[in-house]
From TrEMBL:
Transmembrane segments: none annotated. It comes from the Archaea. It comes from Halorubrum hochstenium ATCC 700873. InterPro entries: MeTrfase_TRM5/TYW2, SAM-dependent_MTases_sf, TRM5-TYW2-like_MTfase, TRM5/TYW2-like_N, Trm5a/b_N. The lineage of its organism: Archaea, Methanobacteriati, Methanobacteriota, Stenosarchaea group, Halobacteria. GO terms for biological process: tRNA N1-guanine methylation. The keyword tRNA processing applies. It holds the Pfam family Trm5_N. This is SAM-dependent methyltransferase TRM5/TYW2-type domain-containing protein.
Length: 331
């Protein structure tokens, strides 16, 4: 059967396959084929292929692929699973059910080395949680997202793969030559792709382990020369980087309002702030807007360019983002 395939040099196969997977473009019903030095990767539709690979799409006969046995087929019900690199994450209070799901995940033909169960909520200043290792023997993995790789240990750092689309939305706004400050940078899921787009990025995080991973991730993605990563409270560098930022990322939803004065201090003459918040559905954007306006005072004109619900956080509560432009006034 003739299907659309992305044709690339064999040595680029895994890199391109990962990019297509990140874009949800892979056709799981047909087999990848190799012919000489070229690999043909079936895709679900030409419109899903990233623009820079569009000229690589060809029509080609592809053999049907036997669908892998899924955990649901083994269990007889659909478990709630989350993928992070080669780790599968579950969230089960019942130990017996958790181990049943873990056994099914490992028995299924699913790319996976480890199954973890959440053993605590996100806790403490560093926003980490406890885990039960149900299968495998580690909590470190490599997560791939929109063409970038992130090494991380889920037991030592905070990371949510569910925010990939939101991170990509922000990164797509970055222009070459910008000065960006990621105020709560984690392992670099904003900082690394912003640097890849040509920004000079200052990345700060309280978690020293996260900063170690960030530096490693900057190196493995080829942007170490564009990222200055340091550990500590971002308020401690407000004087050093005052009035320099063209873009600020404030992804600390529960307490970003405590740092709006620092954000205003860091902002240059024309600065876009990506402010993340968690608020009640009755007024999800107002508290953040008012906090920024109060901090800006008469020094900046404040324009809210985007108000976006990122995801539901809890009943009647939303994780939201405000894209706010600060423009220094002439006064």
């Amino acid at each position: 059967m003739s299907v659309p395939c992305v044709a690339v040099a064999r040595e680029r196969g895994e890199t391109v396959r990962s990019r297509l997977a990140d874009a949800d473009a892979l056709d799981g019903d047909h087999q990848i084929a190799v012919d000489g030095d070229t690999i043909y990767i079936p895709v679900a539709g030409r419109e899903r292929v990233p623009a820079d690979l569009a000229d690589r799409v060809v029509e080609r006969d592809a053999a049907a692929r036997n669908r892998p046995t899924s955990p649901a087929e083994i269990l007889g019900y659909e478990p709630s699973l989350e993928r992070l690199g080669d780790i599968v994450i579950i969230d089960e209070d019942d130990d017996e059910r958790a181990r049943e799901i873990a056994d099914a995940v490992m028995a299924a033909d699913l790319p996976c080395d480890t199954v973890l169960n959440r053993a605590s909520p996100i806790e403490g200043e560093l926003r980490v949680r406890q885990w039960d290792v149900l299968a495998g023997n580690g909590t470190e993995t490599v997560h791939r997202e929109y063409g970038h790789e992130f090494l991380l240990d889920v037991a030592a750092v905070y990371f949510s793969p569910r925010l990939a689309t939101e991170r990509h939305r922000v990164v797509e706004q970055v222009d070459e030559g910008e000065s960006a400050i990621d105020m709560f940078a984690g392992v670099g899921p904003y900082a690394v792709p912003m640097a890849a787009r040509g920004a000079d990025v200052v990345a700060r995080d309280l978690n020293e382990r996260a900063v170690e991973y960030l530096r490693e991730n900057a190196a493995r993605n080829g942007v170490a020369d564009r990222i200055t990563a340091t550990a500590g409270d971002v308020r401690e560098i407000a004087d050093e980087y005052a009035d320099t930022a063209d873009r600020l990322v404030m992804n600390l939803p529960h307490s970003a309002d405590e740092f709006v004065d620092t954000a205003v201090a860091l902002a240059g003459d024309d600065c876009v702030v990506h402010y993340y918040d968690i608020q009640h559905e009755d007024d999800p954007f107002g508290p953040g807007r008012r906090a920024i306006e109060a901090a800006a005072g008469d020094e900046y004109a404040v324009a809210v360019e985007t108000e976006r619900v990122v995801r539901s956080y809890a009943p009647h509560e939303h994780n939201v983002c405000l894209d706010v432009r600060l423009t220094r006034t002439d006064d």
